[in-house]
Every structure is written in C-alpha cells, then in structure tokens.
Amino acid sequence: MNNLKKTKNSIRWVIALKEEAQVILDYYKLKPINEKTIYPIYKNEEETHWLIICGIGRNNAAASTAYLYAYSNASNYTSWINIGIAGSGKGNYRDLYLVDKISTYQRKKSTYPSTLPKATLPKMHLFTSDIPISDYSTYELIDMEGSAFFDIASKLTSKEFICLMKVISDGPENDIKEITKSKISNLIKENLLKIIDVISYYERLSEEEFQIIDKPKLFNEIKSKWHFSATQSYRLETLLRRIEIFCNKKDIEKTIKNCETSNSVINVLNTKIKNNLINWSKF
Amino acid sequence: MIETIYVEEAIQNHPKTKFILNKFKKSRIISINKYGEIFNKRNQNFRIQKANPCLILAHKKDNFVLPAPEGFGIGSSKNFYFSHMYNCIYDCRYCFLQGMYSSANYVIFVNFEDFDISIKKIIESNVDSKVTFFSGYDCDSLALENVTGFAKHILSIFRKYPQIEIEFRTKSIQKEPFLSVKPMRNVILAYSLMPELMSNSLDNKAPSISKRIRVISELASKGWKIGLRFDPLIHGENWKELYQELLENIYNNIFLDNLHSVSFGSLRFPKRMFKDIFKLYPNEPLFTSPLSLNNKMISYDIEIEEEMTSFCKNLSLKYINENQIFKCSI
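ok -> structure tokens follow
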C-alpha cells in the first residue's frame, strides 16, 4: 500500500455492482488486488486505474470512496468516476447520461457536479434514494449511490475531476423487476465506446494537472546535494519553477555548481531571477 | 459558447433573466437556490473552469455600491464602485480576479433596478462633493455588454446627473452603447493598455491593443471622454522602446481634447493572492520577472517601478498636462 507508483494519469472508479463493472474491468484490464480488503478492489498493471465494487446504497458508496482513496494513495489530480444503472421516467431506455445536479430526500440543498466540456452526451438531474422508487414521474434519473459518492469525492479533489454517468435501466415501460445481471452488463457494454471517450478526457485532465503540480525537474537532484529545511525547500521549488521557463537544465546546474550551502543556492537562483529581463517576443 | 447557465429560482421570471436566457437558446439551464452553491464552493479548480466557464444568473441582496479603495480615484474627493458581474471573460495573467474567487464562472446580477436605487441614494447624500463612480471592479465593465446591456442601462441614470462622473474600465471594444447615444461629458471610457508584444502574451482572450486603440480613437472623435490606464506597467527587454511606441501611437491617434486622464500603476499582487495565482499558472512567463516582496505586496523592486512610472509620465507630459496624470496604487 505504501509503495504505490506515482502515476501521471490517475482514475478511480466507484461502481455498485460487479455486473456494472465487468465491462470496465475487461476493457481496462483491471485485475483483483492480492490482498483481502473490505470492498473488492481491482487495478491495472500500470496502477493508473483502480476500481472498487461498493455495493448498493449511499453508506456503501461513501465508505468505499473514502476507502479506495486511502488504499490506492489517490492524489488531488485523480479523477473519480461513478457509473451505473438508473431509473428514469424522462430519458431513453439504454442511453447514457451525464449528471450535473444531484438531490436527495435528506438534504434541502442540491449539489452540482461539473461535466466535461463540449460533451455530446445528454445531461440530467439525479435523485439518489435510499429505497427503490417505482414512481418515475418526479425525477429525471434515480439511483442509490450518486449523492454519497459525489459528497465524498468532492472532499478528495476538485469537482472538475469528478464524473457521474448513468445508463437508464428501468422506467414506466421497463419494469425494475425485470432487470437481470446479464441485462445490466449489456446496458453498460452497449455504451462502452461513449464511456471510453469520457474517460479519455479525465485521463488527459489528470495528466495535465500532474504536469503542472509535479516538482521541477532539478528539484530532487539539488535537494540531494545540499541540505534544505522545509521553508528552504519550498523556496527552492518556487525559484526553480520560475527559472526553468527561461533557463535550461545545464545553465541552472552551471549557476549553482560552486555553491557551498543551500542558502547560497537560493541566493544565486534569486539573483538570476532579479537580473532576468523577459524577452516578450518569445512568448 | 456558454454550455450551462445556473439560474437562481427567485429570479427565474425577472425580465433581465429572460432577456439574457433568450441569447443562449442552446445552453442547459439548471435551477439553483443561491449562487453561492456554485460560486463559493472551495473544491473548484479555477484554471480548468476558466477554459469553459458557466454563467450564473443571480439576485444581489446588498452592497450594490461600495466606497472605492484608497488610491483608486482620478481626482474626485469621493469614489465609489459597483459591479453587476463577478469575473471576466478575459484571462489576463496579472489580473487579481484569478486569486479573488474560487470559481471562474461568471455571475451576473440581474436586479439592475437595485443598483439604480443605491446609486441615486449616494448621489443625493453627497451633493456637496465631487463624486466619481467606477463600473467594472470585479469584472470588465463592457466585455459582456451584448449579453447584459448593463452599461446602456446605467448610462440612462447618469444622464440625469451631469455633475457626477462615471468611469467604465475595460479592455473591450464594445462601442454600441456609446455610439447609439449622444456623448455625455460625465462619462469616462477608460481603457487598460500595454505594449502589443506584452499584451499578446498576457491579455489572453482580450481584443488586441491595436483594435482597442482604433475604438478609443473613434469614441474620442465622437466626443466621448477617454481614460488611458497603463496598469500594470510591465517590465522586460526593450520596455522603454515598447512603451514609447505605444504612448506615441495613442497620443498621436486620438483627439487629445477628449482625453480625460491617464494613470500608471505598477505590477503588484497581495502576497497571498500571488501564491494562489502562481499555483494556478506556475509556468507563466510573467512570474520569471524580477518580483519580490515589498510592503506585503509582490511587485517589482521600487527602483524599477519608479523608473517605469517616471519614464511614461515624462513622455506623456509632452502631450498632456500634469493634472491629467494619476498614479494607481491599489
């Protein structure tokens, strides 16, 4: 658990049922992890995708999201995905929808997930219920996990990295009692290409964020040569980020090579910035 | 293209809400209780939102008009500002709005009538003072004019008070609200400017400097008073040549009789705000500038600031009077 790889793109799936997850497990080649865990967890070889089967209900969704976060060492640039079936009186049976508003019985206020930009998929308002609902007239989409997943995931990352997708499985003309395990798998399978397309956006987003927050190239190298306190480390990181824009690695190494202390490294880098005259025609 | 518009339930039937929604027929409309449910949440990524912002239509409850901070004025004894909108459609890398809100979505307050009441109250309680109002402190005052019609609306208020000045601060090239009415001597159209080369890198999504100068020239020739705001002054290679070229270009191309004022301001960020903006855009060339902490502000060293301000001021004095020049210090 503590020796996990730091991956550039990072996706975490929270899915209620194995039948809903199976197509995802197959496509992304996710295998069960070799440890006994509270909820079943799967991951791919590169450890970029992790998936947890949370079971039905809000409590399971909340607990498993937090559990997967801790277990998989997710970062603040990890994208969180919840996909599953939902009832609906308004959408089309078998179609995939993005969720951009969530309500519950328990809470007066709604929550508002972001959706990926320029999405071709339709969007709907999700109602998360603690009991199965057969009156479909009031709500666009009905599930049993979405609100809890979103509440916890939005404490772990910013809401632009969270996505909820629902495939309509039942409604006034498709009785909830007729849902079978194979029907569930097929509903997800029929929408796999659309799901992959959505996920590729979140993989890119996660990777871009990683590039932005990753430590500057020379940071660890410099830290291994001189001793830096926590405050000095922060200063070094900030200075390197700024200098790397106008100086290449060799120039920076040359600049600091005669420094005897961490303090003099910081001073020399600081002077380099003080003397920098930006050539605006280059940017 | 605005994909999603959040609308507060309380103003769903407000005429301005309907007017604005009518312009976005393809957008998804989501009903909300209060704009803070979307706008004030902490778990948001400003940079990602900025690439595809949503619109929020809301009702402003209070604080319609506020006293302007010290150092914001252009000669009046009392200065006030109001903002019908939070956030800006432009993405200028030095802008304080990047560190101001956790959200990059645009909030438009549709109850313009309440701004009118507050403005009138302030005017009536300051009859003995020289008063200037500023529109566009938490936003660009004209950038979304074709959506909101706010400038056109507010002009009608100030037409009744010719002794009270109003400044619209902008980078926009919107001309319509001004070309369709007679020039008003109490209105200042103030444009933020910097050398084109710097603007190309820093004023993302904003109209080019040459387009802004063309609009300034046209409005000045029609009789509108113009303010030139060189704020912030940006340092870099050949900055003297770049600013000289810009200043001479402007002064030689506008009708100087209608130049109300010129102000210069240095690049400056409150320390906390700089930290937030740097975190959002660590690879931004602007932050390779010789910036350091001076009096709780991140800015150029005082020598650089003074050299830039006095260079631009001295050059301007060849064209305008000293009493037309102001320093922005906020």
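Residues 58 and 109 of chain B are 5 Å apart (CA to CA).
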